[in-house]
Specification:
Blueprint (H helix, E strand, L loop, with lengths): L1 H68 L11 E4 L10 E8 L4 E9 L2 E11 L5 E8 L3
Antiparallel strand pairs: 1-2, 2-3, 3-4, 4-5
């Protein structure tokens, strides 16, 4: 009978050890899963940033084309026209270029590309000669 009591006590003593090991394994597993999730989210944000930049560039190129066709083109209110980059892209703020063109010397084009929750902004300064031709421009990414 005494022998049976010692085996019982050994089993009871190993239970806390097993629980501690299980908790440690769970903590390590959770940490690894969270690191993977963080990496995936960072990757998605970078991808959206590159897409938003491409949308902003497309909007700026569209405005340059409008200026090339009509040197007096002016659309100076902020985001005065938009270009859907996907179906309903601008109405859902997920795939859009918002463009404005202000007259002056130089003419300033501002284009904001939206992709998901990421925005990128391109500013173009275009010089137009007395004949109405674009003689040069500077292009900058002024995203925050």
């Amino acid at each position: 009978m005494n022998h049976h009591s010692e085996n019982s006590q050994r089993g009871v003593a190993s239970l806390p050890t097993i629980l501690v090991l299980a908790i440690l394994i769970l903590a390590v597993g959770t940490s690894i899963a969270l690191l993977g999730l963080n990496s995936t989210l960072t990757s998605a944000t970078q991808s959206n940033g590159q897409t938003a930049l491409a949308y902003a560039e497309a909007g700026a190129k569209d405005a340059l084309l409008k200026l090339a066709r009509n040197s007096g083109y002016n659309c100076s209110t902020p985001n005065c026209y938009s270009i859907d980059m996907a179906a309903s892209g601008c109405s859902t703020n997920t795939a859009c270029a918002l463009v404005s063109v202000s007259s002056g010397s130089p003419t300033t084009i501002t284009s904001i590309g939206e992709s998901g929750t990421v925005n990128r902004k391109i500013v173009v300064q275009a010089t137009i000669d007395s004949n109405g031709k674009i003689t040069g421009y500077t292009w900058s990414d002024s995203s925050n």
